[in-house]
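Appendix B. Chain record.
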Amino acid sequence: MSRSVKGTVIVDGQELTVSNPNKLLWPEMGITKAIFLQKLTVLSPWLMKHCKDRYLTTIRFPDGVHGKSFYQKNCPSPAPAFVTTDDHEGIHYVKLHSLPVLLWLGNLACLEYHASFDRISNPEHPSEWVIDLDPSVEEEPRIMEAAALVGDLLDSLGIASTPKTSGATGVQLIIPLIPDLSFDELRLIGEFVGSYLTNKHPKLFTIERLKKDRGDLIYIDYLQHYQGKTIIAPYSPRARAGATVSTPLHWDEVRRNAAISDYHLLNIDARLEQEGDLLDRKAPQSLRHILAFIGSQKK
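Structure tokens predicted for this chain:
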């Protein structure tokens, strides 16, 4: 029986316990817990930025990506004094506001970080609109083609978007907003976009909610973007064999059919150093004119 190994480190003035630093979390990539914590440190400015003012759900894999996992909404106990919470509907969500908090979660083998669509400070009016392209099959070679078609349609409507890999099988389009529309109003726009694309490309897209009825079509999920639901945070690792990271892309990368597996924990630091956060390059916009147009078509 192996003996547990523990040590302590000081991060930003806080003492952290690191247990089993040599435990393999992503065996295929040779990523131990110690390496994972190093990579989380690199990702921390960007990951924390996109989890700020959101309710955080993590997924824990105590024995690595091939072991059992569970969702963690409530703050684990006991928690260090530097960990604070956002309390909502009886759940004590960890507030991801510092590197010590992130590394504490990482030491607990929280490998994935999912943030609520709604902001804590303004839950009724989202600061971005998200279209989630969800393949019905595990390996979908058309996913980047599909993302490009959605991006082109949005561009034709005067809507600026940034594509982001989910780090799993899908792609999400992020549209930064002036927070002047409700989730319900954005769903109306999503239904309009989804219906148009499904009619125009019936062999590629579907808005069928039931997975068993989608066949091999790519689901345009506009319903998931709603208060109380979550999305994999930009720059969150994924608990998949390739240690992929949810990564914003350039549109020319999408059109070159980039692979989701191209972006992972072992190379994301070089990309961030070169590119910074691509989600910062689009200014917040209002979609109220699109909503008005849709309303005029229904009269």
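Further analysis of this model is presented in Appendix C.
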